[in-house]
Automatic annotation (TrEMBL):
A motif (RadA KNRFG motif) lies at residues 254-258. Residues 68-217 form the RecA family profile domain. One of its GO terms (molecular function) is damaged DNA binding. The keyword Transmembrane does not apply. One of its GO terms (biological process) is recombinational repair. InterPro entries: AAA+_ATPase (IPR003593), DNA_repair_RadA (IPR004504), P-loop_NTPase (IPR027417), RecA_ATP-bd (IPR020588), Ribosomal_Su5_D2-typ_SF (IPR020568), Ribsml_uS5_D2-typ_fold_subgr (IPR014721), Rubredoxin_2 (IPR041166). GO terms for cellular component: cytosol. This is DNA repair protein RadA. Belongs to the RecA family. RadA subfamily. The middle region has homology to RecA with ATPase motifs including the RadA KNRFG motif, while the C-terminus is homologous to Lon protease. It comes from Arthrobacter mobilis.
Length: 467
């Protein structure tokens, strides 16, 4: 084979997502199946050689000063909780979420709080004018003398603003709106996003400047742009929330400086966004008397226990196919729980329309809410309220067993703090842990056992209390 034919068959195209190579361009990567990520790489003539001189020689790890990378609080306690303590100088944070969820409002509030502490902050917006950002800042009370605004979509000009202001915190809203004249492609494309992110990360590391990048998401909820973007940044946060609910949740998907199982809760109002240190009250109905078809449960969002209420309503129907409507719960999971009730507890539900929902717009996806869903449906079917000041949690299997869930003692302590007195929990080899004084717990192994306990008139002596 000639050298000319060998060069013609050398891989000239590479996937920006996974690195897969091919000799000709294709629209879809053959490895990761991503669309529009295969780009021409060109031929590499030689390998990179070692530099003649090294500007910053390597140091022993014991000689490195770590005080310059200490956490600096943002002034927003819930965000500091997610980040692990605050912003780390030189760290690059990617905050992604759906349109209208409150990303810009939160970051503008954070920028104003950091600027009020005496540090310079640069807010680069590519989606709004400086006047529009100023109007929102006045509405939420986020105006500070050390907060600088720049409405730019050109990466080179944005880097020039960084040179002039030399901020301690940089906010870019958003990374998909910036573009570089030195790179081909439209703003938001794979090549442009990679170049913009690399330039901003380089500036953040060289200047020891904390940087927050706002990222768009696709229709399936994933972060738009190349996957390389999530690998390059230090922290990836997901901003979630229902459009018709005031509650917003921030989760750390990746965090090089702290845990990834913390969740920050926020309340989005017309006056701005506020952290919720104790959001459990938003998810419980303010009724003073027990109502049939309701059951309180405790779910874990990260390491934070949240008390929420599951409501069920059954209405007899003459239709051959009864309606199954859910809100805030997985519809497939609710259908499974109804099947378990019919098969394992001999409860006839095939002639009833069912409506199962949560209170306050909260989404309950944890399997530990299964037992509360089952008890709420059973309470609605029997038209009998559950015991007052009672909670229930546990995963329910298709065989009707109630399986243990993590954090049983943590959930019980949260319920006791909010004034609850009884709990129906799954039987666990380690038990329920230390039970607070005056709080009573009943461990069950099956759904039938839980239903017999609540609807067969058991005595209160069946509940185990703290010694």
């Amino acid at each position: 084979m000639s050298s000319k034919s060998a060069r013609s068959k050398a891989p000239a195209y590479r996937c920006a997502e996974c690195g897969w190579t091919t000799v000709k361009w294709v629209g879809r990567c053959g490895e990761c199946q991503a669309w529009g990520t295969v780009e021409e790489t060109g031929q590499v003539a030689a390998r990179t050689t070692a530099a003649a001189t090294v500007a910053r020689p390597a140091r022993r790890i014991a000689e490195v000063d770590a005080t310059s990378a200490a956490f600096q609080a943002t002034g927003v306690g819930e965000l500091d909780r997610v980040l692990g303590g605050g912003l780390v100088p030189g760290a690059v944070i990617l905050l992604a979420g759906e349109p209208g969820v409150g990303k810009s409002t939160l970051l503008l509030d954070v920028a104003a709080r950091v600027a009020s502490a005496g540090r310079d902050v640069l807010y680069v917006t590519g989606e709004e004018s400086a006047a529009q950002v100023k109007l929102r800042a006045e509405r939420i009370g986020a105006v500070a003398d050390s907060l600088y605004l720049a409405a730019e979509t050109d990466l080179g000009i944005a880097l020039g603003h960084i040179e002039q202001v030399d901020p301690a915190l940089l906010v870019v809203d958003s990374v998909q709106t910036l573009s570089s004249a030195a790179v081909e492609g439209a703003a938001g494309g794979v090549t442009q996003v990679r170049e913009v992110a690399a330039s901003l990360i380089n500036a953040a590391k060289n200047r020891n400047m904390a940087t927050v990048l706002v990222g768009h998401v696709t229709k399936d909820g994933s972060i738009a742009g190349p996957r390389l973007l999530e690998h390059l940044v230090d922290v990836v946060c997901q901003f979630d929330g229902e459009r018709h609910s005031r509650l917003r949740l921030v989760r750390a998907v990746k965090n090089r400086y702290g845990p990834t199982d913390e969740v920050g809760c926020f309340d989005l109002t017309e006056a701005g966004i506020e952290g919720l240190a104790d959001p459990s009250g938003l998810f419980i109905s303010p009724t003073s008397t027990p109502v049939s078809g309701t059951c309180i449960t405790v779910t874990l969002e990260g390491r934070r226990p949240l008390v929420a209420e599951v409501q069920a309503l059954l209405a007899e129907t003459s239709n051959a196919q009864p309606r199954r409507a859910t809100s805030g719960l997985d519809s497939s999971r609710v259908a499974m729980m109804m099947a378990v009730l019919q098969r394992r507890a001999a409860m006839s539900l095939h002639k009833d329309d069912s409506y199962v929902a949560t209170v306050g717009g909260v989404k309950l996806s944890e399997p530990a809410t299964d037992l509360a869903t089952v008890l709420a449906i059973a309470s609605a079917k029997n038209n009998k309220p559950l015991q007052a000041r009672m909670i229930a949690f546990g995963e329910v299997g298709l065989a009707g067993e109630v399986r243990p869930v993590p954090g049983i003692n943590r959930r019980i302590l949260e319920a006791e703090r909010l004034g609850f007195q009884y709990a129906i929990v799954p039987a666990s080899p380690n038990g329920a842990g230390q039970i607070p004084p005056g709080f009573r717990v009943k461990e069950v192994q099956t759904v039938a056992e839980a239903l017999d306990l609540l609807f067969a008139g058991p005595s209160r002596s069946g509940l185990r209390s703290a010694g």
